[in-house]
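Many introductory courses stop at the sequence. We go one step further.
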Amino acid sequence: MSYAARLWVGLSFGWYLAGLHPVHAQAPSPAPSVELRLDDMRQMVANASKHGVPWSGPQSGPAAHPGATIAIISEDLRNGGILGVSKGIQEAAKTIGWKTKIYDASGTPAGRAGALTAALALNPDGVILVGVDVKEVRAQLSPFEGRKIPMVGWHVGPTAGPIAGSPIAMNVSTDPLEVARITAMAAVVASNGRAGVVLFTDSNFEIAMAKSNAMADVIRACKTCSLLEIKDVAISKSAELMPATTQDLLARHGTRWTHALAINDIYFDYAAPELTRAGKLSKSISMLSAGDGSAAAFLRIRAGTFQTGTVSEPLNLHGWQLIDELNRLLARQPVSGYVVPVHLVTPDNIAFDGGGQHQYDPDNGYRTIYRRIWKR
């Protein structure tokens, strides 16, 4: 069992705080001391904050499959993470010599249905789902499956790797549960175990709920922290709902609210201006996000405007990995199954690994490595 897994076993013996809306209830059990747990958390947060980590992904694989046409079905290109991955896919596809067609679902059921219908009409060699919850579109994937069109995805389910009960051969992602735990641990560590947390999630997505459950469990396991509230706000309606939601939270929780955790940076795009309008100082509330490392989040962290961290995903790298996994499938080979290590962006490391371009783009030579694998 890994160090992270062993620590999580210890963390799971936490307290269930009475009176809170439970995202994931658990029975009270004895726990190790807060001091020991804080020391372990500090080490894990420090490890996740390292920069310049060497490439740990595949070093070999099939040469480029010639002349493929790929359909990219994006949940909502207004989301910075989805847009970043889509751009990475296009960059990698150009390198490997493939044509791509993007279909934007605009974050609605009707949009998903239309995008999938249009993609099927293209009769592509492969399909990449970006941010689409595979459970929501399982029936609409059957025609692709019937034509034996290989499919991979990014953030299409709650775990990295194959999605059980679906034709998705590989869900490219960092480990969403570890992403969530590191985010929550960073809040606990920064507050020395006294964080007053409001957590933002979106129950429309299984991966979002898995992440928010994990964050809530970490906060509940800290007996001197407080999980003040869990807010279910649809990402697609964040611009509309977050200003009033932020005002309401300030009115009800006041200075007890010291940390905001979220499953995506986009919530903070609309919460930060409201906090400023309310006269809150940037140091009074610390925002940390369990994804995806948007440009706006980087700007807030760099400027010291409320946000102090984001567990940023290497969006461009994930785009390259999606093309590589699909190339393996087209060559009738198994996927690599690579899971990128978790990386926490903070004011101390934001200057490295692509931070100057307001993104996390690991300086580990992944483009050169994939070109070598593809013989491009």
